[in-house]
Amino acid sequence: MTEYNTQFKDLLENPILKETTTPKEPNILAIGRGVKELTISNLYAYFLDPKESHGLSTLFLDALKELVGLETDFDLTTISIHREVHHQKKYIDIIIRDASNLILIENKLFADIYNNLEVYESYDSEKRGKYLILSVVKYYEKIREWQVSTHQQLFQIIEKKFEILTPKLSTRQSENFQTFIDILKKQYSIVENLTEKLAFLSNNNEQIINLFRLVNEVKSSYLQQVSSIVRSTLDKQIKVTIERNASMNFKIKDKSFYGYVFFNDENTNQLLISLWIAGSEHWYKEWHKENSGIFSELVNEYRNSGKLMVAKEKNNGRDWTSTFYQVYEINKPDFEINFTQSVKEVWQPLITALQNL
Fold first, then answer.
1. CB proximity list for 140: less than 8 A, separation 6 or greater
2. Last residue of a domain, one of 168, 199, 230
3. Same domain, 271 and 122
4. Cβ atoms within 10 A of the Cβ of 57, count?
């Protein structure tokens, strides 16, 4: 193992690799809503509307006008901002229109530009509008009739105009504005970091591949040992299969129960065994009956004894429902002895009980 430690020392201590393992503080979007693009579009619509309470008047509209090269001013008496406009079974993110101007905006954060832009363009029957894709990364200069710009390009114009105008905002208005700008910068920063990390992966490709190979060799070695223990201690009629993705599974005969043995993706020192109900509505319903199903006695026995963990989730689908599981630390002394004992004294009685239900 000394050779591997020497070979990968510099790689493992690289700050970029360490950064990938450091939990990041969640931003407002992560806390507030799961669909970030919708949230960003809602915020844009709010700040683009001069009638809203943000106190910025036409600041965002003026910045957008400069970005798309609109030559005429907006008519503030007829302007309207629309979100998620339904058109030919599609939804256009933002539409801005007044008596003489029309701007269609498609907002992109992490998704690629896969939308049917021709359908969106057909909304503009008079072909008088401007079409804008706001993206985090500028992969293209233009797609069809659509200008592609980054959120960064827009918020740089916004910040420049803000400094010139220095609008008098209340504390709440100022916080809302700065928070939105910070959110946009955060999304752009994530992608910038991603580009840097991709370059790191490319430059260290051979070492990383060897590192993954080493991890898989260790996993495979342990799985072979675990497989031998499971085959020798569980019911002989239970079929054990080792998968290519460094895991193994077994099925309890004539029941819709599947067992999985695998390594924790986030901690290779942890080996997990989990038991799932699969493809049986009857077993699924019985599992979720509180103290009245056929599993209730087993659930109470193993939960109270602490021998196994019992899944608490009640929202599993009928196709796959988690039941019993346990986590084993392979880096602890006498792992094989303790694991063998657990299979014999805990899992074997449980599986026998399930077979007899």
1. 113, 148
2. 199
3. no
4. 14
Containing structural domain, residue 255: 211-355
What's the rounded Cα separation, in Å, for the pair 205 and 76? 56
Number of domains composing the chain: 2
How many helices (H) does the chain have, and how many strands (E)?
Answer: 13, 12
In angstroms, the CA 262 to CA 274 distance is 9
pLDDT in tens, 17-36: 665 555 544 444 443 343 46
Secondary structure element (H or E) that encloses residue 319, with its range:
none
CATH of the domain at 235: 3.30.1460
Residues 6+ positions from 190 with CB-CB distance below 8 Å: 136
Phi, psi of 149 (to 5 degrees): -130, 160
Find all residues with CB under 8 Å of 183, minimum gap 6, and list them.
Answer: 27, 28, 29, 40, 43
Please answer whether residues 226 and 241 qualify as being in contact, where contact means their C-beta atoms are separated by less than 8 angstroms: no
- Please, which residues bridge with residue 148 across strands? 133
Point out the domain boundary residue: 170, 199, 228.
Answer: 199
Give the separation between CA 65 and CA 197, rounded to whole angstroms: 35
Q: Are 328 and 273 in contact (CB under 8 A)?
A: yes
Distance CA 26, CA 30 (A): 6
Neighbours of 187 (CB within 10 A): 19
- Residues 153-188: tens digit of each pLDDT: 888 899 899 988 888 888 888 888 888 888 777 766
**DSSP output for 143-191:** ETTEEEEEHHHHHHHHHHHHHHH-----HHHHHHHHHHHHHHHHHHHHH
Same domain as 298, residue 248:
yes
Cβ–Cβ < 8 Å for 287, 323: yes
- Is the pTM higher than 0.70? no
Q: Which of 90, 39, 40, 96 is nearest to 63 (CA)?
A: 96
Question: Residues 47, 148: one domain?
Answer: yes
43-76: pLDDT as tens digits: 888 899 988 888 898 999 999 999 998 888 888 9
Which one-letter amino acid corresponds to residue 174?
A: S
